[in-house]
Description:
The protein is mainly alpha-helical. The chain contains 5 helices and 3 strands; from the N terminus they run αααβαββα. It is rod-shaped. The two termini are 18 Å apart.
Amino acid sequence: xxxxxxxxxxxxxxxxxxxxxxxxxxxxxxxxxxxxxxxxxxxxxxxxxxxxxxxxxxxxxxxxxxxxxxxxxxxxxxxxxxxxxxxxxxxxxxxxxxxxxxxxxxxxxxxxxxxxxxxxxxxxxxxxxxxxxxxxxxxxxxxxxxxxxxxxxxxxxxxxxxxxxxxxxxxxxxxxxxxxxxxxxxxxxxxxxxxxxxxxxxxxxxxxxxxxxxxxxxxxxxxxxxxxxxxxxxxxxxxxxxx
Length: 243
């Protein structure tokens, strides 16, 4: 295979490799974005659960207060009934004080219930509003999750197809060139080719290279690497015209 044909082959491989890297990156980014949405949703759900727990505590407290009111009401009725049966002035005064004390406790409990009911009403409104928000965000998340899964399925298919095409093209390259590409990939050097510019400058790192490198490359059909960035120097049309 001539160096010009191999050059075109290298360019095709690199083009497919760029597409492959882009798809792999996309396959990583999409779940990350979904994960960020899920984190926000989890926080909102946790906040909603906290609000519901607070509301439940207030409802429980209000229930106890109402039970106290019921018990105090019973005691008040019983004490008032005893007043009609007491003939001793001293005992009567003591019973009256007891009734007054019970009435005072009843007023306190009723005031507390009123305050609790106001708090619960406000909390119930907040819980309802937050529940609507969470439900909406959950729906959005579910829709995006389904969309991401669909996209990932398509990307996975394209990744497999692209990898197969790259492998087929690599199979047409000389073993020596495949080893060079493999080493460059291991060292995370990409793109792995660079234009050998007519002014003897590497098109990737823009450092000068010895003119003899491209002269030898065209004559022998063997590719040379940039002495600075180690990328494979691909001779341009000018190189074959001047060779």
